[in-house]
Amino acid sequence: MRQRRGVGFLALAGAVLGLAGAPPAAPGAEDFPARAVTLVIPFGAGGSHDLTARALSSVAPQHLSQPLLVQLRPGGGGAIASDLVAKARPDGYILLFGAPGPNSTLPAVEGRSHGPDSLAAVAKINDAPGLLVTRPDRPYKTLKELLAWARANPGKLTHGTTGPWGAADVPMKQLMKETGINAQLVPYDGGGPALLAVLGGHVDTSFLLTAQSLPHIRAGKLRPLAVIGTRRLADLPEVPTAREEGVNVVYVIWRTVLAPKETPRPVVEKLAGAFKQMTEDKSFQALVKQLGDETNYVGPDDFAREWRAEFEAHRELGRLFKK
Amino acid sequence: MRRDTSRAGWLLAAALAAGLAGAPAYAAEDYPTKPVTLVIPVGAGGSHDLTARAMVSVIPQYLGQPVIIQLKPGGGGAIGSQQVAGARPDGYTMLFGGPGWSSALPAIEGRSVGPDGLMAVARVNYSPVVFIAKPDAPFNTLKEMVEWAKANPGKLVHGNTGPWGAGDLPMKQMMKDYGFQAQIVPHDGGGPALLAILGGHIYTTIALTAQSLPHVKAGKLRAIGILDTKRHPDLPDVPTSVEQGINVTYTIWRAVLAPKGTPRPVIEKLADAIKKTTEDKSFQALIKQMGDQPGYAGPDEFAGLWQKEYDLHKEIAKVFKK
Question: DSSP characters for A235-296?
């Protein structure tokens, strides 16, 4: 009788903890997660990291067997949230929705925030490549023509950025380093003003997000020169990547789940498996499509390699361009 | 000692079991003490699913507990609706209602569940629909359409998006209230109806604004009236039906509904959390990406709107059903 009660209790506890749909347990992580997991967003409400995280959160219970709670912690270009997670208990319950700014460029160039030395890769959810754009009245129609023009007119090319070491600045520095051209980097206060500067002819070029530039490209007011990612865009299939044009520059706004460095491997694997399932969820994919993005999951080891390479590349850029 | 351990274990199990089954109704001031389930009675990826996902991604900070989505498609939404109507009215099982499965089906076909078997918590938002005509139609407004149809009996060919749906009910209501005849040609959803009007096979149809907008802007379709009480921000020049003196409105609404008998304090706590969610910046950004706007309506206001719609559909069915 007493034994039967024991069995009943175990079954009940199992029903409470092991909800359906959980990925197979990695050894050493059988009980994980036993409660809600928090995903810290290093930027403000309504941005692409926030909205992508909301899409994850809305499908998470089915795949993680626990809720995924989104917590906004903007500030310091993402350094505040990165610091919070890097110093949190490495038990898998506090995660960061990382980005190239706070988690590659800032630590590599300025030695603040946190990179791959103090955070661990869990799962890349997706990324958005930048697009090199110019005004249609400029004399260059391709990246190759732009480079030729810049070489023939040294010091003349002006390029609008969203601030030093931001998403429009780093890839131009990479381009300068790779090709030897020179450009005057003109900082603007965000992507909106940088877009206006190109549209108004105040600068020759900028790197912009596709969603932001697409309406202007379709209206014939912007000319796309190259995608600064690893693949062409579904919305602009005729625009080649920089690599296709012979220039080895890649810069994408990645959205990757990161964890405190010492998080146990079985926990990381279990989380990665759950995030992979989320990216395959039909509702998640529909939401991400509404955001103008695609999903492209990358697991912990592959992303760790990509991340490390990017971090080192930014470190080199920092040495080259920082006075 | 052994007995104590076993007893403690049993008590813990009993406590867990109570927790699973839901807190008793008198504990409404503690509500919610565990996650709330929201049943979506239609498939993944549709506008009800995605709007609910936007809501649940934001609501935990206002409700104090997560809301977990459960997809239960089937029977045009009847299966999920019946499941929630039969659940314990303790605030832990909710339905994401819509005009099809929560008004039209119960009012017209006597299946699924309407305001008799469920109660309103709050409307999250709605999508307005627009009355559209082919560009060479001999009328430019809804009012002119009604006059033309009266002068040319039986000539107006209207394509619906399925019987008793958004493309059908408002037209039937208009025929009933304004006394004209039209041939209603059934189409299997909004996509086929749109193709039919673009191909010039029908004079009119009713579509979601977001869906028809590109064609209207390109001049391939003519928007002759928004079936709402206010104009649409993307079509500011198109007057509403009400402005034209045609008192017919229809919206694709999305609202949280609860089993009948759910205590008022529980309803109010949920409604308050939903209201704060619809005011949240992240939620608003997500809804905007879907081409929609928030449109919160509280439990009493929405119960009134819902009942009115339900009664109206019943009346239309009496006139048109054989």
Answer: TBTTSPBTTTTT-----EEEEEEEEETT--HHHHHHHHHHHHHHHH-HHHHHHHHHTT----
